[in-house]
Design a protein that fits this description.
Elements: H1 3-17, H2 23-30, H3 34-50, E1 55-60, E2 63-68, H4 73-81, H5 90-102, H6 107-114, H7 119-127, E3 131-136, E4 144-148, H8 150-155, H9 169-189
Antiparallel strand pairs: 1-2, 3-4
Helix pairs in contact: 1-3, 2-3, 5-7
Length: about 190
C-alpha cells in the first residue's frame, strides 16, 4: 500500500471515529508497523497545517484525533447559535400524535398503543421542544407524564389543543383492526 492510500485510510478512520485513536490500533487495522503509521500521521498533521486547512490532527497522550483548526472557532459558534431545524419521521409523528391526543400520558401508555419502545422518540420530541414532562403519575415508580408544549402549538399552527382535528371513531376502529392484523402477521412470521 502506498503512502497516499495509507493517508486516505487513516484520515477516514480518524474522521469516522471522532475520538482519539491509538496508532497501534491503526497499524493493526492496516496490517503495518506502528512507526509507519506514526510517520503518516505526522505527514498528515503537517499537510493540514501547511495547507491552512480547517482541520488539524492533535496528539493526545500518544493517540491521534482529528479536530477543528482553532482559527475558525468563531464561525463554529455562529453556526451553533443558529436555530436548529428538525425533521419529524413517521415514528416521531406517530408518537407526537399519541401524546397530543392522550396527554398527559406515560411512556408505557404510548408503548401499549404503538407496540414498540418509545424512549428514543419521546427523547427526540423533548429535544425538539414539542413535548415536555408535565408531572408524575401517582402510581408505583411515579412514571413521568408527557404533554405537548407551546412550541408544538406554534409549529402546527393551532392556538389550543381544542383546535386539533377530531378523530373519526370509524377511522379509529379501522386503524386498530389494521394494526392488530399487522401485529398478527409479524408474530406469525417470526
Amino acid at each position: 500500500m502506498d503512502r497516499n492510500e495509507m493517508q486516505k485510510i487513516i484520515e477516514g478512520i480518524l474522521f469516522t471515529m471522532g475520538d482519539s485513536v491509538d496508532p497501534e490500533k491503526i497499524a493493526a487495522a492496516l496490517e503495518t508497523e506502528q512507526e509507519e503509521v506514526i510517520s503518516v500521521l505526522d505527514e498528515l498533521a503537517l499537510k493540514y497545517e501547511n495547507e491552512n486547512r480547517g482541520i488539524r490532527l492533535t496528539k493526545l497522550e500518544g493517540a491521534y484525533q482529528m479536530c477543528t483548526s482553532p482559527d475558525i472557532y468563531e464561525y463554529l459558534i455562529r453556526i451553533a447559535k443558529q436555530p436548529k431545524k428538525y425533521f419529524l419521521t413517521d415514528t416521531l409523528l406517530e408518537t407526537l400524535s399519541i401524546i397530543a391526543y392522550k396527554q398527559p400520558v406515560t411512556k408505557t401508555e404510548i408503548e401499549k398503543i404503538r407496540g414498540v419502545s418509545c424512549d428514543h422518540a419521546v427523547s427526540r420530541l423533548v429535544e425538539f421542544n414539542l413535548v415536555e414532562e408535565v408531572g408524575r403519575m401517582d402510581a408505583p415508580g411515579r412514571p413521568m407524564l408527557f404533554g405537548t408544549t407551546e412550541q408544538f402549538l406554534r409549529s402546527f399552527g393551532v392556538t389550543s389543543l381544542e383546535e386539533l382535528p377530531t378523530l373519526n371513531p370509524v377511522q379509529v376502529e379501522e386503524f386498530k383492526q389494521a394494526a392488530e392484523e399487522e401485529a398478527t402477521h409479524l408474530t406469525v412470521g417470526v
